[in-house]
Amino acid sequence: MLAAADSPAPEWLVVPDDPNDLVAAVWPSSADRDDDGALVLAGARATTLVQTFGTPLLVIDEDEVRGRAREFRLAFEQAAADNGTTAQVYYAGKAFLCTTVARWVVDEGLRVDVCTGGELEIALAAGVAPASIGFHGNNKSVTELERAVEVGVGTIIVDSAIEIERLAAITARTDAVQRVLVRVISGVHAETHDFLATAHEDQKFGFPLDEAERAVARIREIPGLEFAGLHCHIGSQIFGVAGFRESAERVLELHAALLADGPVPQLNLGGGFGIAYTRVDDPTPIRTLAAEIVSAVAAGCAARGIDVPSLSFEPGRAIVGTAGVTLYEVGTTKDVQLDSGVVRRYVSVDGGMSDNARTALYGAQFSARLASRTGVGDPQLSRVVGKHCESGDIVVDHEYLPSDLAPGDLLAVPATGAYCASLASNYNLVPRPPVVSVRDGRAQVIVRGESIADLLARDAGIDSQAASGEH
Q1: Mean pLDDT over all residues of the chain?
Q2: Do 135 and 284 belong together in one domain?
Q3: What is the pTM of this model?
Q4: Residue among 98, 115, 232, 389 flagged as catalytic
């Protein structure tokens, strides 16, 4: 049933028949409960994981990551083959990157895109072939560009006229030839948060379509640059294919015009495909995305009498997001009676906006479930909050949890594999939590958690005080 009319809960939030249920689309496919009601992920019990690694704890299901990477690759390769071309799929390093995850996705046939020197070095440390790396970013430094050219990054996605000249100087100095894509703004507005939409005109990424021809002409003049094609990304957390169809149609106009002066081998249409964060989210099936987007490109090319270029896609969070579950320990609960008379329970956990900034940044919605046992109480409207000194420190804004939830219980927040660890901070000097992978009942640390000692080690004043003998 839906929330009552006088409830402060949003209309979409359903009062569950069972506040312990695990909605399939939101959780890794391995998620289950054991005979004691404890959450189990890839055969590993949440209670055991917490006993071993503590809380907060980000748990990544390896098979979920691998399976989704493989499914995206096969779907787009098949759709491309059906339309007489080829396709490549890139894993978005910004969603979550460590050497272990980079190796998983490369094992499954994906390439990797990065957007900073740090992400580039992690990919290289993982053994990712430089030729399989795409380098994004609106403000790549000269140092970052020099490193990318030095190691032989497959494509640099250029974002400004200044960057083109920086690359011209670097390649002239080093006698290198660097392949580049030109990022363009299609003007298609994705149905997503304003900060996640990247194809409207008033934003920092890319060239407007009417300026892109000049950028390509300049690249074609530079001996050290090889124009490889166009790139367009309309946003993130997108459901459906309508925006991709329209964006492709606009970019193909430019693509066709550019063919008059030389080859345009590749078209990267980005991605940013959405995942389910709540029970009402309905992501587009992967095969549907691939088939409909690629066929739209093929139809647009046929209408213009041009060949279908090689295609590239960047699924973004859709590969790793659902694979991640964050475990917290409940510290306090507090019931607050609202003006409507409805009681909202505040559930405070031992993490918060330092390990999941998305709710504070975007008003993102998440789900939560009791993880250490089966709750026996009725569904209680709840808000899961962190331990930081901010009223906006909210992890899950609206959820129904068992009314008997109490301090010491474990709480699990699903769909945290993307952008949570990547955006993590030390706000209030809280150490960042570890990340562990799980598979076949076994767990291993893939990113070490920080300690208070790690935080103190960065404070130069401690060393100077010790050296001076001050107390």
Answers
A1: 93
A2: yes
A3: 0.93
A4: 389
